[in-house]
Amino acid sequence: AVGDQAPAQTSGSVDRDHGTTTSQKRAKTFTRTAYEAVEDIQLSIEDLDEQAAREIRKVERKYARLKAPLIKERSQALVKMPMFWKHVFESHPALRANLEEVDKEILGYITGLMVVDDDDDSGHSDSEEDVDKGDAPGFSIQFEFRENDFFEAKMFKKKFAFEIGRHIMHPCEIKWKTDIPEKYPDSFFVLWFGGVEDMSGIADIIRTELWPDPLSVYLDEAVEEPDSDTPSLIELVEEHPSEVVDADATAEGGRIVNLSE
């Protein structure tokens, strides 16, 4: 019978089974097709980003190896500048803000500092398989000290592993000769070396601001108010002539700004 026939659906009529109109279905189909196209394009972009990261890592490793002999020479030269790393740490505002008086005293015993990326120090090759192991290596910051009254070891290595998109600090145990941790719980050497959180981004500052060009950080002290309690390099040269290379130096504002063999 005529009354038994279902009414014909128009392009905007409702599909009662799904609660959507025919035009909405069509729009969703178009939207889905566009989404899949964009998704495919985005995946291709990400593939190129990964390739670029691998190529960049290869170049970084190459030049890290080329720089290694120069870094070694620089470290050997800096040993001949007494109190160099102490002055560098005290010259950087962010680092200075984290130093207690006892830290400044300990810094006076530093003879060397080294920052090493894990893959630059482990003989890795530049093969695709090796580069694919990670786009961000872990690294370590190594402090070397001369004999002192604070701790037993003459070298401490603070390690950082790249995990879940960020660097995670690993604690470094210090065997203290005295009760420094109890007397100075806020000490940089107590908190930072023994901790798992990088307070104030100190590791990043050392790695990206101090290590690439420590001499520039040291010379920045020339324009700051000198610390009356800290001897200048000129004074140290006079007090320790046997530890310093013979040099022609020009003093500016009480600091040596030229030091050449």
Architecture overview:
It is a single chain. With 261 residues, the protein is of the alpha+beta class. 44% of the residues lie in helices and 14% in strands. The chain is built from 10 helices and 8 strands. The chain has helices spanning 22-79, 84-91, 93-96, 101-107, 128-131, 180-183, 188-194, 202-210, 214-219, 233-239, and strands at residues 14-15, 20-21, 110-117, 139-145, 155-163, 166-170, 251-252, 255-256. A 4-stranded antiparallel β-sheet has the order 3-4-5-6. A two-stranded antiparallel sheet has the order 1-2. It is elongated and about 90 Å long. The termini are far apart. 13% of the residues are buried. Residues 121-131, 222-226 and 243-261 have low confidence and may be disordered.
Short key terms for the protein model shown above:
261 residues, alpha+beta, 8 strands, elongated
Derived structural class: alpha+beta
| Proportion of helical residues | 40-55%
The largest β sheet comes out as: 4 strands, antiparallel
Number of helices: 10
C-alpha Rg (nearest Å): 30 Å
Number of strands: 8
- With strands numbered from the N-terminus, the spatial order across the biggest sheet is 3-4-5-6
Global geometry: elongated
* Model regions low in confidence, pLDDT < 50 over at least 5 residues: 121-131, 222-226, 243-261
**pLDDT averaged residue by residue:** 76
